[in-house]
Amino acid sequence: MPSVHLHVHSEYSMLDGAARVGPLVQAAAEQ
């Protein structure tokens, strides 16, 4: 299975989180 390393700030980033994990994964899968 191929993988891609992404540098994102999710809802789990203490001060920088804006994006939710589910939509990030879905957007990455669509690309």
UniProtKB/TrEMBL annotation:
Residues 5-31 form the PHP domain. Pfam families: PHP (PF02811). InterPro entries: PHP_dom, Pol/histidinol_Pase-like. SUPFAM superfamilies: PHP domain-like (SSF89550). GO terms for molecular function: catalytic activity. It comes from the Bacteria. This is PHP domain-containing protein. It comes from Clavibacter michiganensis subsp. insidiosus.
